[in-house]
Model the fold of this input.
Amino acid sequence: MGNIVTVASGKGGCSKSTTVMILSANLAARGYRVAVIDADRNQSFASWHAQAYEGPPFTCRSEVDHIKVVDLAGELAENHDAVIVDTAGFENLTAASAIGMADHVLIPCMPDRGSVRETMRTAQQVASLSKAARRTIPYSVLLTRWKPRGLSERAALDSLEEEKLPILVQSFGDLADFTKLSFSGTVPTTGKVGDQAGSLIAELVAKGAIPLAKASRVRGKAA
Ligand SMILES: Nc1ncnc2c1ncn2[C@@H]1O[C@H](COP(=O)(O)OP(=O)(O)O)[C@@H](O)[C@H]1O
Ligand SMILES: [Mg+2]
Done:
């Protein structure tokens, strides 16, 4: 049984789909059996996958119905190591279902006031759905388009830390390679972006958000 990771935020344009692109391709490159569900009506991920993506293959399905998305994720988790759900940038039932069924929720946050506000609201939504489900739904904040020494980054980080939100150590930089992705369909799995993706994956594995890659599991057994 694989893990379900939902990428969510009430903020549109805060890097949800880009994060799913980087994660899915980099997990596939590391031998994971990956499935992505595009649960956003705009279908930007699904069309990118069908028309532009060139890289290690992974499953991509579209489902915007808030009931069907739960069944589909469960079904895909049976024969994939990681099921990643890309959600729409506003509060909606499908995103709530995708948060409710997640093993881990990833909230991307860019260094601007709107992004920070929506990160906090999404964190509250995860907490409230945890209460409703009577289980803890783990989540973490992924800083993205992030300049380590930027001024707005400092202000954004202060606000997030004040709320005691769980922030991942690894961030995604403000790099042209991320912006180019949506046109080129080639996802870097080496170099700066590949390194950032690799460290993020390691951190998510350590948190139990995604399982160890199959190859590592086999090596682990043999050792
Ligand atoms: N780390 C990053 N560095 C530079 N540009 C980024 C980064 N992350 C996202 N972007 C750009 O920001 C825009 C919005 O990203 P997108 O992933 O479509 O957001 P969402 O899915 O949340 O609406 C896109 O043009 C994307 O290329
Ligand atoms: Mg999107």
Q: What stands out?
A: Residues 216-223 have pLDDT under 50 and may be disordered. The first helix runs from residue 16 to 29.
